[in-house]
Structure formats: C-alpha cells, structure tokens
Design brief:
six-stranded mixed beta sheet; Purple Acid Phosphatase, chain A, domain 2; 37% helix; single chain; alpha/beta; 458 residues
C-alpha cells in the first residue's frame, strides 16, 4: 500500500475503503510525446527555444529525460499497482516529412521497454494515439504493419492470444483485470476528424459491433467494464472542440449509453488537460463518466486564432474497487517544469486528490452530478476555478473567465458540440441576467433534475 507517500487523511480514507471492499490501484499515464530532435533541431517546438531545459519547455514536446523520469517516478511513488493504463501518443508533434513508420515504431518500442524495466511484473494496458500512426492521424481500419509490430511489443501485456489477433485487425482488445471486471482498450483514432481513411466508413475495423458485443456479454455474465482509449468522445473543456466524426460519435455514444449499466468509467488522453464529464442521454437516466488525464508533455497547443495556457507534466494514480470496478478516487501528481529545469532535478508532488478537492465520495456519475450542480449554483466559481487550475496541472489558482465556466459546465454535461454551444449561450445569458433564469434553475437544462440535485446535495 502507498500510505508512506500519501497524506494521512487520504490514507485513512483508503483504509476505510479497504474495510468495504477489495481496493486496488493503477497508474494512468498518457501523451508522453517524445521529441527525438529536442537536443538538435527541436522540430516539435512552436517557438524558438535558444536555451532548452533539461526536462523540456512549454513550447516543446518531451525530451527523453522527462519520459524516463516520469515513468521512474511512478515506480518511486508506488510500484505496487495492479496495472498501468497508457493511453497513447508516444510520438511528438512533428511533421510527417520528418518521421517514418519505423521511427514511430522505435519510439513506441523504447517507451514500452522503459515501462517494462520500471514495472517488470505489472501489466500495461496500452492504446495507440493518433500521433503514433504514420502518416500522423491515419489509423487504418484493416490489418496493417503498425498493428502487427505493436502487437508483438505488447503481446505479454495483452497475454491472451485471441486478443493479440484482435489487436492485429484494428488496434483494440479486451483484458480481464479482476474476476468480474474487464477492460476494453479501444482504438478511437478510427473516429478522429483528422483521419481521412475512415471518413466514409460506417464501422471502421468492426470496433463498434465488437464493443457492443463485449458490453452485452459483460452484462450477461455479471461483469463490469472499464472503457479506455486515446481520443475521448465528448467535447474539449474549456474550448468546446469536437474530435469525432458526427456519425461515428452518435453510434459510439449510443452503444455506451445502451450499456451504461455495466460501464463503471471511461478513461482517455489526447486533450493534454485534466478534466471530467458525464456522457448522458436527454433524460439523464443513462450516463457514463469520462475522465481525461493530463499529458506528460508540456507542449502548448496553438492555432492561428488561439494559444492554450502552458501546462505542467502530470501522472495519475487511481484507486478502484476490484470487485465492483467503482473508481474511488485519484491522486494527481505533477512537476513544476520551470523549477525542475532550474534545479536540474524533478520533485513529483501531489497536486490534489479528486475526492478531497471536489468534496465527493468517489468518481461515480452521482459525484460528478454533484460537482456540476454546484458549478451552476452561486458557489460555482469555487469549483470552476479548481477545474481551470487543475486543467493546466498547476497549484497557482486560476480564476475562470465566464466563457470558460460556461464551457466547463456545458461541455461537462453535453457530449454533442451543438448542444454544448447552445447550453453555453444560455449559461452566459443567465450569468448576465439576460434570460431571467437563475443559475440554480439553469441546472435543469443540464439534464440534472431538481429533485436529483437536491438529493445528492444533502
């Protein structure tokens, strides 16, 4: 157990949880984005960096020192975990002209070896990210060289030969992590709007049908399921960007919601930021939680019209009930990149505990509904500001803008981009008193019934 490194209050809560069930731990690490040119041409950097730091720069992807240090630090904090969840994007944000398939595979292999070295007895349940493919983003929906070679790298982790063959067909598989708990590692890059190969394919690689079959089979056998992958199906918050092709999103989310009773959580990467959402139907009767872990890379996203806030590297330790699959909480760790470079060494520190920071008992749908309900109340700035602060993996308090508050609330409750945007318009109008609605009443538009809100806030 990791009580030697966790605060006493957290340890006490975990001991209490032990009394109620069989508690386990796993690491979630994502978006390492190793830049093999960091010490030469720095091809991932969006601005000139004349004096690159040992552990990276906010304009650049990760040097190897950061990749190694983050994985080694996971083992130093606690190596006694049931498994590691690695949700993709090992390759840097570098143009295809400066990459090759063999180079991408070499990077994935090096990180695979590093994880094996630091955690020799721990299975890793890994997914490919959109940048791991060559050309970038182009996840094939047929058997391909990347699926063949990566399946050999991860064969011992996947362990089941049938699932190794499944991975070769489309980059996805199922793993049993406890007697009544299975994990579905998906290839959601098949639905990415930058993937030209799958734009007109209704069910790329047959993953939708397979997902539905797995969830129905889990129900029939009394199993629970953790769903994982690289690209999340909901919208980015703050920002309200959409990653899935609309037809794929509709089909994918429908499958999740039809089987929401067996899904205990969905965990993704890609966004580079810390975040959580509820994927739910119009009535709120079917719902699934979605958590995105922050990236290891400090690379700052920028477009022609917008530059994101700089963010620090992060790694996440999740606590769960092995019997029910319920996610009980997580400890988010991080380094201050500026301090690490100045000191010439890292000091991975606990940034926050999810349950303590948001005053909830676990990571369930009910807990997230409580948080979003509070965000829509007069106390909303407290919880929204925490979200804004943690989204960039920082301990320096950030005050959300009204637009960011609206994004967090509406994107947190509406997976459809247009619905989230409509909600945002009403939310901002309510903040400014233009709609005549109070924020407490506005909760109803987020599919949280007033009676339910009142009950969970007791």
């Amino acid at each position: 157990m990791c009580c030697n490194i966790l605060p006493r209050v957290s340890c006490l809560l975990l001991w209490i949880s032990f009394a109620a069930g069989d508690v386990g731990y796993f690491w979630h690490v994502t978006d390492l984005h190793y830049d093999h040119t960091y010490w030469t041409s720095r091809l991932s950097c969006l601005e000139p960096v004349p004096k690159p730091g040992k552990y990276g720069d906010y304009w650049c992807d990760s040097p190897w020192a950061l990749v190694q240090d983050s994985i080694a630090s996971m083992a130093n904090i606690t190596a006694d975990v049931d498994f590691i969840l690695w949700t993709g994007d090992s390759v840097a944000h570098i143009a295809d002209a400066n990459l090759t398939l063999n180079l991408n595979l070499e990077i994935v292999a090096n990180i695979t070896e590093t994880l094996n070295t630091s955690f020799p007895q721990v299975p890793v349940y890994a997914s490919l990210g959109n940048h791991d493919f060559y050309p970038s983003n182009q996840a094939d929906y047929n058997q391909s060289e990347i699926y063949d070679q990566v399946s050999e790298m991860w064969e011992n982790w996947i362990s089941n030969q049938t699932q190794v063959e499944q991975f070769r067909q489309g980059g996805y598989y199922v793993a049993r992590i406890a007697p009544k708990l299975r994990l579905l590692a998906l290839n959601t890059n098949l639905y990415y709007t930058n993937n030209k190969l799958t734009a007109n394919v209704s069910d790329p690689a047959g993953q939708m049908a397979w997902l539905d079959d797995q969830l129905k089979d889990a129900r029939s056998k009394g199993d629970k399921v953790i769903v994982t992958g690289h690209i999340p199906p909901s919208v980015l918050t703050p920002g309200l960007a959409d990653w899935f092709y609309p037809k794929h999103k509709t089909q994918f989310v429908d499958i999740l919601l039809q089987n929401s009773d067996v899904i205990v959580a969905s965990l993704f990467g890609h966004d580079h930021s810390d975040g959580f959402k509820i994927i739910q139907d119009e009535t709120g009767s079917r719902a699934v939680t979605q958590f995105t872990a922050p990236s290891v890379t400090p690379w700052t996203f920028r477009t022609a019209s917008k530059t994101a806030d700089p963010h620090n590297p992060g790694i996440r330790l999740v606590t769960y009930d092995r019997n029910t699959g319920l996610h009980l909480g997580y400890e988010q760790y991080y380094i201050n990149l500026t301090d690490s470079n100045r000191n010439g060494r890292t000091a991975w520190t606990r940034l926050y505990s999810f349950t303590e920071a948001y005053n909830v008992s676990d990571m369930s749908v009910a807990s997230l509904r409580k948080i979003f309900s509070l965000m829509a109340s007069d106390k909303g700035t407290v919880y929204s500001n925490k979200y804004c602060t943690y989204s960039v993996v920082s301990n320096y308090p950030i005050n959300c803008t009204e637009a960011a508050r609206a994004d967090i609330y509406c994107g947190g409750l509406h997976y459809d981009l247009q619905e989230a945007q409509d909600c945002k318009h009403k939310y901002l109008a309510s903040l400014n008193g233009a709609s005549g609605l109070s924020l407490n009443v506005f909760v109803v538009t987020g599919v949280i019934l007033v009676k339910i809100s009142a009950f969970i806030l007791q």
